[in-house]
Specification:
The chain is an alpha/beta fold and about 325 residues long. It has one domain: D-Maltodextrin-Binding Protein, domain 2, CATH 3.40.190.170. The protein contains 12 helices and 9 strands. Strands 1, 2, 3, 4, 5, 6, 7, 8 and 9 form a 9-stranded mixed β-sheet that branches. Strand 5, helix 6 and strand 6 form a beta-alpha-beta unit. Helix 2 packs antiparallel against helix 10 and helix 6 packs across helix 11. The longest helix has about 35 residues. The chain is globular and about 60 Å long. Bound molecules: pantoate (PAF). Pantoate binds next to strand 3.
């Protein structure tokens, strides 16, 4: 009897040690590797830090975040694939390669579709955006929220741009995004889809003349060091998305899921506030750094819109026209 008693005491103590309680130590934390393409002081870095802060506060530090900024885990496509197989837990990515995973996301990449940041945010936070988010669960991913980068603008080393003919033959890097690729082909440019980690060196070596990204990216990456001209073309809105691995998500308790959802909501608010600020200050910063900055007038922008029209035929074939109409009709 006494042997039985001491054995059960011992196994109970072992269980407590295993839980880290008997020694007064902390509970083992679950690691969350979060990868993103930009630096810690970018809109992605700020959002990732807020995400961690909220999840940590809501779960009493149950999760240990490990950040991999500046493409530390590879290009966006590779990182998303890592989430699918469960080797990476979370990421913040652009819409660049998303339509290769969930084809319906391509609709948000159509040029000149969103009128301004407010319009885009209302669409993405509303029914159209949320209907797209749920589709990620079918492909090994779980989408927590839409974030954003701002409107994309063209930078290059060849010439300032005021009319569509100025981009003719321009070797411009696009994201690995069929909608963007088609738009630049339609404009007569020579677009090259390329993963982000190769872009800066390709610009430096003159493999490409230019690229396009929002002010948030141009400022944080200091693209002024490798690009002379910035044209505020605002040709397309650039959303971002906060994704977690589906295998990871499925292993969370309901309380932990609620903590991650709250973290994502606050992360997106921080990201959008950052974008608002850089949209205000970014042009002055880039001029100070020596960039030649031009802005398309409404008439010049309309000429680009007109020139890209032929691509719309194929967009209407690929994407549900009623979704495009709902986006346009969103107040
Ligand atoms: O151009 C891109 O690929 C994206 O906008 C970037 C810079 C990787 C941010 O997601």
């Amino acid at each position: 009897m006494s042997k039985l008693f001491s054995t059960s005491l011992l196994s109970g103590a072992a269980a407590l040690v295993g839980l880290g309680l008997a020694t007064g130590g902390a509970l083992a934390q679950t690691e969350v590797k979060i990868g993103y393409a930009l630096s810690p002081d970018s809109h992605y870095g700020v959002a990732a830090a807020k995400f961690e802060e909220v999840v940590e506060a809501e779960t009493d530090g149950k999760f240990e975040f490990k950040h991999f900024p500046s493409s530390g885990l590879g290009g966006e496509r590779e990182v998303i694939e890592g989430l699918q197989i469960g080797t990476i837990e979370a990421t913040i990515v652009s819409s660049g390669t998303l339509s290769n995973f969930v084809p319906e996301t391509g609709v948000v990449d159509i040029p000149f579709l969103f009128r301004d940041l407010g319009h885009a945010r209302r669409v993405l936070d509303g029914p159209v955006g949320q209907e797209i988010l749920v589709k990620f669960d079918d492909v090994g991913l779980h989408a927590l929220a839409w974030g954003e980068q701002g409107f994309r603008h063209i930078t290059n080393n060849r010439n300032q741009i005021t009319q569509p003919s100025d981009v003719e033959g321009l070797k411009i890097r696009t994201m690995e995004n069929p909608v963007h690729l088609e738009a630049f082909e339609t404009l007569g440019a020579a677009p090259t889809p390329m993963a982000w980690p190769e872009v800066v060196s390709s610009l430096q070596q003159g493999v490409i003349d230019g690229q396009e990204n929002p002010l948030s990216v141009i400022v944080s990456v200091k693209l002024n060091e490798v690009q002379k001209y910035l044209t505020l073309s605002g040709h397309v809105y650039s959303p971002a998305i906060l994704l977690v691995s589906k295998p990871f998500w499925d292993g969370l308790s309901d309380e932990d899921k609620a903590a991650f959802e709250k973290g994502a909501t606050e992360a997106v608010a921080a990201m959008r506030a950052f974008v608002d600020e850089v949209e205000e200050s970014g042009v002055a910063t880039l001029k100070e750094r020596g960039m030649d900055v031009g802005e398309l007038s409404p008439e010049q922008k309309a000429a680009f819109q007109q020139a890209v029209q032929p691509a719309y035929e194929s967009y209407y074939e690929q994407y549900d026209k009623s979704v495009i109409d709902r986006i346009i009709a969103t107040e």
